[in-house]
């Protein structure tokens, strides 16, 4: 999954692929997941490249 867990407050959902231990811990330690950064940019800082962004978009269900 290219972009990881989508932004959500449903922190213990088995859909996110967390281990049973981490799913049990998540509600006590995590308020939510969010996307941080710009993974569609090389090293999150280079110039925007449409082909890179489109390639990434093709590999994610989000």
From TrEMBL:
Protein name, as recorded: Uncharacterized protein
């Amino acid at each position: 999954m290219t972009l990881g867990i989508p932004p959500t407050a449903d922190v213990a959902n088995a859909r996110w692929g967390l281990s049973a231990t981490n799913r049990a811990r998540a509600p006590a330690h995590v308020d939510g997941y969010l996307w941080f950064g710009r993974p569609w940019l090389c090293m999150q800082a280079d110039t925007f490249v449409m082909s890179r962004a489109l390639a990434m978009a093709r590999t994610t269900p989000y």
